[in-house]
Amino acid sequence: MGISKKKRIVIAAVVLAVAGGLVYWLTRTRPPSNVLTLYGNVDIRQVQSAFNDSGRIQDIRIEEGATVKKGDLLAELDPARFMDTVARDQGQLASQQQVLRRLLAGSRPEEIAEARAQAAAAQAVLANAQATWRRQRELVAEKFVSQQSLDDAAAALKTARANLDHARQALILAIKGPRKEDIAAARGQLQADQASLAFARRELADTRLYAPADAVVQDRILEPGDMTTPATPVFTLALDNPVWVRAYLPERALGRVRTGLKAWIISDSFPGQRFPGWIGFISPTAEFTPKSVETPELRTELVYRVRVYACNPGHRLRLGMPVTVDIPLGGQSQTRLSAHPCG
Fold it and tell me: Which helix or strand (DSSP H or E) is residue 252 part of?
């Protein structure tokens, strides 16, 4: 007696369930693969390159797509007003240097001799005023001149004494030279003038915009004649050596991967080629798998974002390019890099 159709369906379902369970068990219990495969997209760092000062752009020397080296001249501002400021500060510095030299040199011998002569002249005037006062006093006593004449002589004598005292103090100051406080103040003013000139020269140097690193000019934002400020980028530079791949590591593989491990990057654009790389960053926090990751087994899992760096001297790996990352695990292939080799 044959088996009914309903029983055959039940038996087939049981067989499929057993086979599925067996496959699942074998998959769960088999040893882990020696290569971990991740999927991601190439990313790059960008620099918004701008001048350190405001002004009108005079010249731009680089076009979009150009490859530049660190230190290459990219653009220049009109330097006229910055050059005038440098010239003004140079004149002020030179003047203050002479002021300090004069103070440090002290009084010249001729100045001291002049002060001595003035003191001697004042002494002579005083002697004459004393003699005149004495004569006027005698004449007043004998009623030959008025009292007013004696008063005038006394005033002249007082003035002569004061002038002599002033001349003697001037001589002392000439011999001693400038005060140390005046010298210190002159030094301070000289330092201020030096700083002002250095700042003016720095502003003049800032009229030239140089490449901060080896890069590719991604966008040329401004043109000659445009006004610019430090907050206005002139170029967008793509730092594409090294590049890095944004990928996502499943939680179950977290313990097998660490920063510095070698990796291989594979792109459909270059069949048969592999680009050497290394694990540069593993996020300390988990997140849900982004929708851009299309592998079915990862869509609902918690993952950890990783960055896989790669040298890109030929600029073949480009922004947004989808790639596959193979990370060798275990054995001699699990080599750790202490620093990236891109130079």
Answer: none
Q: Residue 197 contacts by C-beta under 8 Å, 6 or more apart in sequence?
A: 86, 89, 90, 92, 93
Q: pLDDT, tens digit, for every residue of 295-319?
A: 555 555 788 899 999 988 788 888 8
What contacts 30, CB < 8 A, 6 or more positions away? none
| pTM listed for this prediction | 0.63
Write the CA distances from 16 to 20, 21, 324, integer angstroms. 6, 8, 34
Cα gap 104→174, rounded to integer Å = 13
pLDDT per residue over 222-251, tens digit each? 999 999 999 999 999 998 888 999 999 888
Which is it for strands 302-310 and 275-282: parallel, antiparallel or unpaired?
antiparallel
How long is the chain? Answer: 343
Would residue 117 be called left, alpha or beta, if left means φ above 0 and alpha means ψ between -120 and 50 degrees? alpha
Cα(62)–Cα(83) distance, rounded to whole angstroms? 25
Q: Report which residue type is found at 281.
A: F
Task: Write down all domains in the chain, each with its CATH number in brackets.
Answer: 29-46+239-333 (2.40.30.170), 48-76+207-235 (2.40.50.100), 85-202 (1.10.287.470)
- Residue 237 and residue 212 in contact, taking contact as beta carbons nearer than 8 Å: yes
pLDDT digit string, tens, across residues 77-119: 999 999 999 999 999 999 999 999 988 877 777 777 888 888 8
- CA nearest to 74, candidates 193, 207, 211, 177: 211
- Residue (of 44, 95, 78, 331) closest to 204 by Cα position: 78
